[in-house]
Write a structure and sequence with these properties.
Blueprint (H helix, E strand, L loop, with lengths): L2 H12 L7 E5 L5 E5 L2 E3 L7 E4 L2 H8 L5 H6 L4 E4 L1 H11 L1
Parallel strand pairs: 1-4
Antiparallel strand pairs: 1-2, 2-3, 4-5
């Protein structure tokens, strides 16, 4: 599954939900997904918070097959920037 497809799924999931701030999923050479202003895109830009993880772990995270806190503790996700934004994300995907 390409990041464009994942971004489209996130856009669908964000419909009707509010998400304050901006967040980037940085999947390295696979690309990025930026959540901002109630939508998701694959254009790289500065965000309030960045989560670095593999595209595979991103898929697992978004489908509920990877616990975000466990993933951070195991080093599967690295967070930089505003932790408050990352915490809001967990409410969106739970």
């Amino acid at each position: 599954m390409a990041l464009d497809d994942i971004a489209a799924g996130i856009r669908d999931g964000l419909a009707g939900k509010s998400f304050d701030g901006s967040l980037k999923f940085d999947c390295g050479t696979d690309g990025v997904i930026v959540l901002s202003e109630g939508s998701a895109c694959t254009d790289d830009r500065e965000t309030d918070c960045t989560l670095r993880l593999s595209a595979e772990n991103l898929k697992k995270l978004l489908t509920g097959n990877l616990n975000p806190m466990t993933a951070v503790m195991m080093g599967k996700i690295k967070i930089s920037g505003d932790m408050g934004v990352a915490m809001k994300l967990s409410k969106l995907i739970s």
